[in-house]
Amino acid sequence: MIILIISFTFLSVPEHSRVILSGGAFSSYKGEPENLFWNPAGIGGEGYLSSSYNYSGVTYGCLGMVKQRSQFHFGIGLQSLYSGDMKKTSPEGELLGEFSYYSLIPIASVTYNWNGLSVGGKLLIPYVNTDTYHSYGVGMDVGLLYEVNKEITLSFYGRNIGRQIKGFVESKENLPAEFRIGSLYKRNKLGFSLEYSFSFGPAGSIIYGFNDWFDLTMGYNNGIRDKNSGNGLSVIDGGSMGVRFYYKKIIIDIGSVFYGPLGIGKTIAIGYGG
Length: 274
Description:
Blueprint: H1 2-6, H2 17-21, E1 47-55, E2 58-69, E3 72-82, E4 86-89, E5 95-99, E6 102-114, E7 117-124, E8 127-129, E9 134-147, E10 152-166, E11 178-187, E12 190-198, E13 201-211, E14 214-225, E15 234-247, E16 250-258, E17 264-273
Antiparallel strand pairs: 1-2, 1-17, 2-3, 3-6, 4-5, 6-7, 6-8, 7-9, 8-9, 9-10, 10-11, 11-12, 12-13, 13-14, 14-15, 15-16, 16-17
């Protein structure tokens, strides 16, 4: 896991339950406040968001708010990561105690909508701290959405475009940039999305609304590849399933991501707004 800190690879993991349960294939959804934590071109509505995701003892979280002003949507938020207690060992394998690390990432987004075109940008400032070292950087996300018609939307999304300002130990690295192209077919209560990520591969999702208070989401994420090891190991890879409940202005997402022998990730989110 220490590699995830040094290279800021954890920035590649989705933060909000809605995006996680969609396998990341959420970039082409328009008018969604949850896109504050994904493709900024897709931000819409107004409201408050919170989400928590736990995998293998590591907890991701996010809090945010979206407001609309004319053809613009503005959002601010805070993403976080906490490792829990981890064992510290010497090069010889001797136990030296425990340590933990955490990250805080303030974000600010703006989206402009014009007819069938939406463009968005997001500023992020990741900060990581352990008991000995700390690092910070600056980056941005950019997105573009185009509605071909009422049923089909196309998207482009560039993530984590930036660099460490202070290296974790000595060296500074670029943030783990990712570029995604996607499409969404949405008709009545069904949304079917396909995306391709450079360099993480394909992802897909199906969101079906059974009625006014219940949705089912299924997704697949090709994974976050451990490129540092050079062995092609897929460290986060799997299918997902979750449900969404609506009650007046309250929205709740609950679900899991299945990593086979690596275990199950669990996520829950609560939102409020219109």
